[in-house]
């Protein structure tokens, strides 16, 4: 009996101790909850302040964007006129207007100036174009025309940069020298012509034609009718030798000469128009080109 009472007494003590711990735990929780609520209220208040600040900024940005859009819509009125500047010797204002007209459907601000420039520069005789807006509803197109330096074949035209800019011209100036060569050689022939024509003029000679044949041999004709045979090898060196040594010899008798053959390593040969003219023997070590 005493053992039972002792056991019950121990259990009672354990229960009392458990209730004590639970009470202390509840007291701690009761103290912590007001602190958490205060911190949560503080964080919520800070978030509201930050949100109001951001909302104000967003509203300001939206107003600015709306104002810009309204301004752009108001200013983007239809293009009504085209002002044109240029020499217009080979290109007509009507051709320029025709190239620009499809872009006039857009507005003053939305018109694609780069696209208009490309459309104008696609015209055969146009070298460069510049497009500008003119307040309040106009465009200005300034055109620089191509300058033809030579013709290519029958009806092609080559500019001062050696570019074939027209393949089938309706009008070819008769005074232009004629260049010719195999398919795809226009740039090579043009660059060689442009490189020497200034030096020829300084020597009192004018090139009327320059040819590159299928075998790679070069010839040029002067406006006097004289042909200079240059062959396939060392062409630039032979041109230099012609200007340095041959041109002073033939300068005053151009009308009497059919050709000057520069295809020799140590001189040149002259072909005269009439048998009565003094013969010029070919230098020794004759023509060293196999395409003679």
Describe the structure concisely.
The protein is an alpha/beta fold. The chain has helices at 2-75, 93-100, 113-121, 186-202, 235-250; strands spanning 81-85, 126-134, 138-145, 148-152, 156-159, 164-166, 178-180, 207-212, 218-222, 227-231, 257-261, 269-272. The strands form 2 sheets. It has a 9-stranded mixed β-sheet with strand order 6-5-4-7-8-9-10-11-12, covered by helices on one side. The chain has a 3-stranded mixed β-sheet with strand order 1-3-2, with helices on one face.
Structure report:
The chain has 292 residues and is α/β, with parallel strands linked by helices. The protein has a nine-stranded mixed sheet, with helices on one face. Strand 2 and strand 3 form a beta hairpin. It is elongated and about 140 Å long. The N and C termini lie far apart (147 Å). The mean pLDDT is 83.
Comma- or semicolon-separated keywords:
single chain; 292 residues; Ubiquitin-like (UB roll); Rossmann fold; 3 domains; nine-stranded mixed β-sheet; three-stranded mixed β-sheet; elongated
Q: From N to C, what is the helix and strand string?
A: HEHHEEEEEEHEEEHEE
CATH class of the largest domain: Alpha Beta
Q: Give me the side-by-side strand order of the main sheet.
A: 6-5-4-7-8-9-10-11-12
Overall geometry comes to elongated
In total, how many domains does the architecture comprise?
3
Helix fraction, binned, reads 40-55%
Largest sheet: 9 strands, mixed
Please, what is the average pLDDT? 83
SS field, number of helical segments:
5
The third-level CATH topology of the largest domain is: Rossmann fold
Number of strands: 12
Distance between the termini: 147 Å
- How much strand content do the residues show? 15-25%
> Mind telling me the CATH superfamily name of the largest domain?
Cell division protein FtsQ/DivIB
Q: Over the alpha carbons, how many angstroms does the gyration radius reach?
A: 46 Å
Structural class determined from secondary elements: alpha/beta
Low-confidence stretches: none
The appropriate CATH architecture of the largest domain is 3-Layer(aba) Sandwich
